[in-house]
Specification:
heterodimer, A: 452 residues, 12 strands, rod-shaped, B: 224 residues, alpha/beta, Rossmann fold, Arc Repressor Mutant, subunit A, 2 domains, four-stranded antiparallel β-sheet, elongated
Chain lengths: 452, 224
């Protein structure tokens, strides 16, 4: 666990950062050292030329004696650390240096003074043939400055590296702490607590955004799971009823049947009941499959107007036999993208509902019009209608109105309608009429080329 | 008829064999895809009934291979729960019809009968005839005993399907699929009402009924 943070991305980044930081410090420090030391040396040389200038002035105006006078004055100056030499031939005229070979220009000398060896930087020149002058200063002062800078750097460098490493460790530790918290939350969610969410700090940083994305995903998953468990509960519950009926009928047939015809009748009803149960399964699977959305790959342009015309032709005799009237009023042509077979099923279910769940003599009107860039299909009837508070429940799977329990069906027709509509990006609205009646309004997005 | 059944589930295959033998068909069964393909290639069958899900070679690939060989034997696919795309896939893959399990015996028998006949048919007819009922497929007209009968487009398609399968039983589901292209079980009696209208126009007032109801199975158009 202790070693683990060394393997984190945060730590790797901060180690790299520390290394780059240290390297740049070394380069910067080197520059500073060279520049300062060069400036100090330049200063010594400048002073040396100034001194020599003064000595030369004395010599030119008043002769050798005055030159010696100037040297003496310079040596006696306040806080003087200078070294001077005025020599003619090999003989020292004035100064605090022993005679030496007369070299001209800037030079470094090693001299022995007061029993100590000194490094001296200075300038040598001839005032006149044979008359040589040297002026310089002890290099101890620039050397001390250099050493001082170097010392500072030697202390600062490890401190800076320490800070960089500590900062990196802190960053990676806090990063790790948050990712660990996320991993822990994920694990707890996996163990079944789907209500749990990844902690979000509210800083809108990248980890927060990741956590939010995961949380959104979890919300979606738990909604799907809830739906799923709702469905499996419904199935288990709703299948019990027909299977129980089937079992009861078989039991009763076993007890009551006397003749072969009795048995045949009992078996026929049992087969019909079994078919009903299988039909329920098929319908449930179909809803699930449509909700899964895989069908969208088979989408093609569909002319809704011609589809509705076909629906009217298909159901008109059925409505007539049920004593109803089925009419079609198509106001507009409308092209949408969709799956014709599924759309046929959608309209069939709605029209069949209007035929089956209304009394004889009901007027059913199909209509289609283009409204605000959408194709709106309406199936209206002037039957008894459905109370407002039941509208939402109608589209739920396996929901059956009390009033319709006497009709055969699984309570899946409208769930299927809702699934097909959703697949097509369509919205469904139930509107109560005033006679009273019910209007189912389905609004499809038109194909792009159709919108104008 | 000699039928090759390729179905891995023993209970289902026993069930189908029982139904087909009851109708006097001769049935051979294979329980494995590869084995079934070899048997089908060996020939000597009038029709093939193939389950979609099979060990070693699935039904769709099996039929595709047969079709690639140039084998034109009529094929009826069987499947468990109806996947919406399965049907289209099966028919595109070379199947002649598609039946979802579980099915009633009459449904299976009627379909086998119809696809086997389709295989034997050689050219597309232009005129269909049953006793004194005549249908002109080019002019889209129908006459009974020389008198014209006015039919709506759907009624025409319904009668055409019955006449093309004259003497054979066609089920409610077959009519829904083939006449109206409906692939679900409607809750209203669509087939019955349309059939009743058609009968009103074709049979009523004419001597001798042609369209008959086959109890528990479907309808048949018979000229006896």
């Amino acid at each position: 666990m202790r070693i683990r943070f060394l393997r984190t991305e945060g730590f790797r980044l901060s180690a790299l950062y520390a290394a780059v930081f240290a390297l740049s410090m070394v380069i910067l420090g080197g520059f500073v050292l060279v520049i300062i030391s060069q400036a100090l040396r330049d200063q010594i040389v400048t002073f040396a030329y100034a001194d020599i200038g003064a000595i030369r002035n004395g010599y030119v105006i008043e002769g050798e004696y005055e030159a010696r006078e100037v040297v003496q004055q310079l040596m006696a100056g306040p806080a003087n650390s200078g070294f001077y030499l005025l020599q003619r031939g090999g003989r020292v005229l004035e100064g605090n240096l022993p005679a030496m070979g007369p070299r001209t220009g800037t030079m470094e000398l090693s001299v022995s003074s007061a029993g100590r060896s000194r490094e001296v930087l200075g300038v040598g020149e001839f005032l006149a043939p044979g008359l040589y002058v040297f002026s310089g200063s002890d290099l101890a002062r620039p050397r001390a400055v250099e050493a001082h800078i170097l010392n500072i750097m030697l202390v600062l460098f490890p401190a800076a590296i320490l800070i960089a490493v500590a900062g990196g460790a802190l960053v990676s530790w806090s990063f790790l702490r948050r990712t660990d918290a996320m991993a822990r939350a994920c694990r707890e969610i996996m163990q079944g607590d789907l209500k749990l969410r990844i902690p979000v700090r509210g800083t809108r940083d990248e980890l927060d955004r990741l956590a939010e994305a995961i949380n959104e995903m979890l919300t979606r998953i738990s909604a799907l799971m809830e739906n799923l468990s709702q469905v499996s509960n419904d199935i288990a519950h709703d299948l019990r009823t027909p299977v129980t009926h089937l079992r009861n009928r078989l039991e009763r047939a076993r007890a009551d049947s006397r003749t072969e015809a009795d048995y045949a009748h009992a078996l026929d009803t049992a087969i019909a009941k079994a078919d009903e149960i299988l039909g329920l399964f098929t319908a449930l699977l179909r809803v699930a499959q449509i909700e899964g959305g895989e069908r969208r790959s088979a989408f093609a342009p569909v002319e809704l107007d011609s589809l509705l015309t076909q629906m009217r032709e298909l159901f008109e005799p059925v409505a007539e036999e049920a004593g109803d009237v089925l009419q079609l009023t198509v106001a507009d042509r409308a092209l949408i993208r969709g799956d014709r077979q599924l759309l046929v099923q959608l309209f069939s279910n709605l029209i069949e509902n209007a035929i089956v769940h209304t009394p004889r003599g009901t007027r059913i009107v199909l209509s289609l019009s283009r409204e605000q860039g959408r194709a709106v299909a309406r199936i209206s009837d002037n039957g008894p209608g459905v109370p407002r508070e039941e509208h939402d429940r109608l589209f739920r799977r396996l929901y059956r109105r009390e009033a319709s329990r006497s009709h055969p069906g699984y309570g899946l027709g409208l769930a299927l309608v809702a699934a097909i509509a959703e697949l097509h990006g369509a919205t469904i609205q139930l509107v109560n009429g005033d006679r009273p009646g019910l209007t189912v309004e389905i609004s499809f997005p038109l194909m792009d080329t159709e919108k104008s | 008829m000699k039928i090759l059944l390729i179905e891995d589930d023993h209970e289902t295959s026993a069930h189908i064999v029982y139904a087909l033998k009851g109708e006097g068909h001769d049935v051979t069964v294979c329980h494995d895809g590869q084995e079934g393909l070899s048997a089908a290639r060996a020939g000597g069958h009038d029709a093939l009934i193939v389950d979609r899900m099979l060990p070693s070679l699935d039904g769709l690939s099996l039929v595709k291979q047969l079709r690639a060989d140039g084998n034109r034997i009529p094929v009826l696919f069987l499947t468990t729960m109806s996947g919406l795309n399965d049907r289209v896939e099966g028919l595109k893959g070379g199947g002649d019809d598609y039946l979802v399990k579980p099915f009633a015996f009459p449904e299976l028998l009627a379909r086998v009968d119809v696809i086997a006949r389709r295989g034997a048919q050689d050219s597309e007819p232009v005129r269909l005839r049953a006793a004194d009922l005549e249908m002109d497929l080019i002019r889209r007209t129908v006459h009974r005993a020389g008198k014209p009968i006015e039919l709506q487009a759907q009624e025409f398609r319904l009668l055409e399907y019955l006449m093309r399968n004259m003497g054979r039983v066609v089920t409610r589901t077959m009519l829904l699929e083939n006449v109206w292209d409906l692939h679900f079980d409607p809750r209203t009696n669509i087939v019955e009402t349309h059939m009743s209208r058609l009968r009103g126009k074709v049979d009523r007032g004419h001597g001798g009924e042609l369209i008959h109801t086959v109890r528990g199975a479907g309808y048949t158009l018979r000229a006896d």
